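User: If you would, consider this record:
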Amino acid sequence: MKWVKKTFSELHTQELYDILQARVNVFVFEQNCPYEEVDGKDQEAIHLVGYVGDELAAYSRLFLPSAEREHASIGRVLVKKEWRGSESGKELMRQSIHVLEEDYSQQTIQIQAQFYLDRFYRSFDFTPISEVYLLDDIDHVDMLRTKRSK
């Protein structure tokens, strides 16, 4: 898989369309969760896209700390249906963590994880920091990862 990291202003129109289409397909249609996917936060995000050939296969949205956010974060983590089961999700998380820790020197990363993926995220050293809560009709848990010393 080829990985591309871009800010909002670096995205071409077709790239943005492909990202939004994938997010709507996974989070709105597949998960049967009608919510406002285009949330006004893409402009401040770092967009990490995994391509197989010219096709978007995996995606995550990364944020650096800000006035609204104490820690860096990873969100909108998705692997398109046809690429699931191929270790693409693990590769996506490794790449997302690498970008934040190595390219942006972030020591702590927070996620709002869908609770059914708790074990998956724990395998990347994320630990729960909240009780399970309902968000958009899906159980979630907040998790935190602190970079390990080398």
